[in-house]
Amino acid sequence: MLKLLLGLALLEVSSGTRLGKIFGGNTTSISEHSFLVNIRRSGEFRCGGVLISPSCVLTAAHCLERRHHQVQDLTIHAQQQCLGEHSPQEHVRHAWYARVSPYYCPEQGLDSDVAVIRLSRPFDISGNASLIKIDYNDLPERANLTVMGWGKIDSHGHNRNQCLQAAQVQLIPQKRCNEHVGSPMQWVTQNMFCALGEKAKDACQGDSGGPVINDDGRTVGIVSWGYGCGSGYPGVYTRLGSPSITYWLKRFVERHCW
């Protein structure tokens, strides 16, 4: 079943698809990845994201649920190991506004699934929070990557108090990925890439918006969609090195994310 990898609720895209959890991963420390944040709407966990500047969070466009002009009920929580933990006020920010890529096309397989949330006030990165850099370069053919998030750890459970997970995944050639998960309604475009780990390690519901990180510690992608969790199908991620995504994202960050 195709589902977007949103938090507690599943956003159906088309028959068989899921939206971007970490399936088969291991618990990892938020203190080692202090650029990670979780995004909540009216207090309910929705998605992951990363700090790319003290005042901006990178996430997936589908995490905004087509409400990117109404983000006042979004809060961004930093330094939270498990979702059920209390967040001190110094670790919480409200969203000010958000922008999705002008190329985002939810009707055609979540193409260009990327958004940036501008915070009401910046995080103090001299304290516990940190920033992650974006790698806009082309991915090597055999890239080893790490995906992180607070998503479900099995396809039947829930993630109300899920703790941060990470899993190692490997890049899959585009042609082979389309043979596995492509369809006329859900094609894997050049604005996406596919990855899957050993023993079907994968992203799952709740991991949407979280980062895919290369060996240099830079983010190269965003958890977007896939089929099932740990089902053997590759996960599909937003490709930040895509020319159109790179062009829009660099311009937005330069103008809004100081």
From TrEMBL:
<dbReference type="GO" id="GO:0005576">
    <property type="term" value="C:extracellular region"/>
</dbReference>
<dbReference type="InterPro" id="IPR043504">
    <property type="entry name" value="Peptidase_S1_PA_chymotrypsin"/>
</dbReference>
<keyword id="KW-0222">Digestion</keyword>
<keyword id="KW-0645">Protease</keyword>
<dbReference type="InterPro" id="IPR018114">
    <property type="entry name" value="TRYPSIN_HIS"/>
</dbReference>
<dbReference type="GO" id="GO:0004252">
    <property type="term" value="F:serine-type endopeptidase activity"/>
</dbReference>
<dbReference type="InterPro" id="IPR050430">
    <property type="entry name" value="Peptidase_S1"/>
</dbReference>
<dbReference type="InterPro" id="IPR009003">
    <property type="entry name" value="Peptidase_S1_PA"/>
</dbReference>
<dbReference type="InterPro" id="IPR033116">
    <property type="entry name" value="TRYPSIN_SER"/>
</dbReference>
<dbReference type="GO" id="GO:0007586">
    <property type="term" value="P:digestion"/>
</dbReference>
<comment type="similarity">
    <text>Belongs to the peptidase S1 family.</text>
</comment>
<keyword id="KW-1015">Disulfide bond</keyword>
<keyword id="KW-0378">Hydrolase</keyword>
<feature type="domain" description="Peptidase S1">
    <location>
        <begin position="22"/>
        <end position="254"/>
    </location>
</feature>
<feature type="signal peptide">
    <location>
        <begin position="1"/>
        <end position="16"/>
    </location>
</feature>
<dbReference type="InterPro" id="IPR001314">
    <property type="entry name" value="Peptidase_S1A"/>
</dbReference>
<keyword id="KW-0732">Signal</keyword>
<dbReference type="GO" id="GO:0006508">
    <property type="term" value="P:proteolysis"/>
</dbReference>
<protein>
    <recommendedName>
        <fullName>trypsin</fullName>
        <ecNumber>3.4.21.4</ecNumber>
    </recommendedName>
</protein>
<keyword id="KW-0720">Serine protease</keyword>
<keyword id="KW-0865">Zymogen</keyword>
<dbReference type="InterPro" id="IPR001254">
    <property type="entry name" value="Trypsin_dom"/>
</dbReference>
<dbReference type="Pfam" id="PF00089">
    <property type="entry name" value="Trypsin"/>
</dbReference>
